[in-house]
Specification:
The complex is a heterodimer of chains A (240) and B (330).
Chain A (H helix, E strand, L loop, with lengths): L10 E3 L3 H22 L22 H29 L10 H12 L13 H29 L6 H30 L5 H8 L1 E3 H7 L1 H8 L18
Antiparallel strand pairs in A: 1-2
Chain B lengths: L10 H16 L14 E6 L13 H9 L40 E9 L2 E9 L8 H4 L6 E3 L5 E3 L9 H5 L6 E3 L17 E3 L5 H5 L5 H5 L5 E5 H14 L3 E3 L9 E5 L3 H7 L20 H33 L3
Parallel strand pairs in B: 1-10
Antiparallel strand pairs in B: 1-8, 2-3, 4-5, 6-7, 9-10
Helix pairs in contact in B: 1-9
The chains are: A mainly alpha (240), B alpha+beta (330).
The structure holds iron/sulfur cluster (2 copies).
One iron/sulfur cluster binds next to helix 3 of chain B.
């Protein structure tokens, strides 16, 4: 992948296509899982959700479970793909680092006009921490969901304590997942973060913004032996 | 560029990884839902022996069941909270004496069918309760796992954590579980917004089973019309009796298989046409397992980690081989 934008464009490549596909596969299936998971509670008919055009199916537990399974396939496969692919590619930029907690605090203070924002690498320290948090939540959802699916398919008389653990872990991680989603939306609405929305939609980010806010990242690939134009996805020092 | 060694994995390891993950994906999944483990019990109800306890005020099995379960339903709060927005409650607390149907206070009743048999009219008595299905949707679909199938084969609702959403009744082909509003855990959480009581049904006297005793109804039957035993033995016995009376079996295939086998000299189509059906009065017709259509997708879910794993390794291997070629290395 070339990080250089077409001639004359003030842009730099932030995410490879594969990352965009992973992100949106997990995001869209995750939202669909929240919705179909909610419809596994007896709420749709009680609260007249079945009357909403296009949501008549919401009162059918078996159909919403079918959809829940369908989106789980995408969600689980994409999550595991993400972990395995980036692990083998040596991409570590989004993993939390020492000092992230302290640095996050500084960033939050700077948002309120207290002190200067420190220079960033590819990701903000709170992005790295949030990534670890959501990874734990997703891992919990997947593990507990797989136990529940196995029970539904093959072992309805599975040990009660295992079933209870899986069920309540799934319900608890569901709540945490919804909260994490709300926090994620709030974070991208914060003004200094907004230019990153373009990156997760198109892969490209404004070069002046990146140079100003992510100088450590820009410096990393500018320092490569090859000029930025020829930097390939695989060579880039600081991938996702 | 970094070499593959620097990334901590060789190209050969990639390929081995793909092969291993792919092999894991083909390791056969069990073919069928486990229809109860080795220790599972089943019951047999022989309709040629049951006479509905003619002459008694109340059938012995019903009386024994009611006595065993007396006091299971706590006193509902007064007034019972009206669930928002529909305001519909189900309250049997003033009809606790009803024995002609399933209610939260009555988990077994005897259905009557007037049929033609051998040129004359005959009344067939049919004790009805939960079938304790082999893969019960009522249990697997409960969002709180308040309903569970135990290794004994009994399907039991834990009244302490049931919110009374009645999902179990909806997915049960016979709509067996019965709701009592105004009792249970929902009263302590969001009584008008979430939940609407507790579901009640036969639990096959699970507490007695674990002690090595039989269910109260079976012990009480003066005509030995009901049996309990290891599943395989009961199935064999049901088949033997059905063959001997040139009769019929109900409960073997229904809802994907159950732990309750009815044996009858009269066909179940005829009985089903003759019984009174409605809320708390289950049919004796065909019963498809509603969850069956979700099975293929559930299998895909179980396989999805392997799909992700293999695709991830393959994509990384591909990307790095490409970069290797472009870089002219190796
Ligand atoms: S008969 Fe209905 S309530 Fe009983 S185990 Fe089967 S599905 Fe559940
Ligand atoms: S099963 Fe036995 S106890 Fe129950 S009604 Fe029939 S004869 Fe009476």
């Amino acid at each position: 992948m070339s990080r250089q934008a077409p001639e004359g464009k003030n842009l730099v490549k932030r995410h490879a296509l594969i990352v965009l596909v992973e992100h949106w596969a997990i995001a869209i299936s995750g939202l669909a899982l929240i919705l179909t998971g909610l419809f596994e509670l007896p709420i749709a008919r009680r609260y007249f959700i079945t009357e909403i055009p296009g949501l008549r199916w919401s009162g059918d537990y078996v159909f919403s479970l079918q959809l829940h399974y369908l989106f789980s396939v995408v969600f689980i496969a994409a999550s595991l793909f993400h972990v395995v692919y980036h692990w083998f590619m040596g991409h570590r930029a989004i993993l939390p680092q020492k000092g992230d907690l302290r640095e996050s605090w500084e960033v939050i203070r700077s948002l309120f006009g207290k002190g200067e924002e420190p220079p960033f690498a590819k990701y903000l320290p709170e992005q790295r921490l949030a990534y670890a948090g959501i990874a734990v939540i997703i891992a919990g959802l997947i593990a507990s969901g797989l136990v529940k699916t196995w029970k539904n398919l093959f072992a309805p008389d599975m040990d009660l304590w295992l079933v209870l653990w899986a069920t309540w872990a799934h319900n608890l991680f569901f709540v945490l997942f919804v909260l994490a989603f709300v926090a994620h939306m709030a974070a991208i609405l914060i003004k200094p973060n907004r230019p990153m929305i373009r990156a997760i939609l198109t892969g490209w980010i404004r070069r002046d913004y990146a140079e100003h806010r992510h100088p450590l990242w820009i410096a990393e690939f500018a320092l490569q032996k090859k000029p930025a134009v020829a930097v390939t996805e695989q060579d880039a020092p600081c991938q996702e | 560029m970094k070499t593959e060694r620097e990334h901590g994995i060789s190209r050969r390891a990639f390929l081995t990884g793909i092969a291993t993950a792919a092999a894991a994906g083909t390791v056969g999944l069990p073919g069928k839902a486990r229809a109860g483990g080795e220790g599972a019990f089943a019951t047999l109800i022989d309709l040629s022996l049951c006479d509905g306890c003619e002459g008694r005020e109340m059938p012995a099995c019903v009386a024994a069941c009611r006595e065993k379960n007396a006091g299971v339903v706590p006193e509902p709060v007064d007034p019972i909270p009206k669930p928002f927005p529909r305001g519909q409650i189900e309250d049997f607390s003033r009809k606790q004496g009803v024995t002609s149907r399933l209610t939260p206070y009555n988990y077994l009743f005897v259905q009557k069918a007037e049929v033609e048999l051998g040129g004359g009219k005959k009344t067939v008595s049919i004790p009805r309760r939960c079938m304790h299905c082999d893969n019960p949707a009522c249990a697997t679909i409960c969002p709180f796992s308040a309903n569970h199938k135990f290794e004994s084969g009994a399907v039991v609702i834990d009244q302490d954590i049931c919110f009374g959403g009645a999902k179990c009744r909806e997915v049960c082909p016979w709509a067996i579980p019965q709701r009592q509003s105004g009792v249970g855990i929902y009263l302590h959480i969001l009584p008008t917004l979430a939940g609407n009581g507790v579901m009640f049904k036969c639990d096959l006297c699970q507490d007695l089973l674990v002690k090595g005793e039989g269910p109260a109804c079976i012990t009480a039957c003066p005509r030995k019309a009901m049996l309990i035993g290891p599943k395989a033995d009961i199935l064999a016995e049901a088949e033997r009796r059905a063959a001997a009376m040139n009769g019929f079996i109900y409960g073997k295939e229904e809802n994907g298989g159950t732990s309750t086998l009815y044996v009858s000299p009269v066909s179940f189509e005829v009985l089903n046409a003759a019984i009174e059906k409605g809320p708390g009065r289950p049919h004796l017709g065909k019963a498809q397992r509603k969850m069956e259509k979700t099975d293929p997708m559930a299998r895909a879910v179980v396989a999805s980690p392997v799909i992700g794993l293999v695709a991830g390794i393959a994509a990384a291997a591909g990307a790095r081989m490409k970069s290797g070629k472009e870089g002219g290395h190796e």
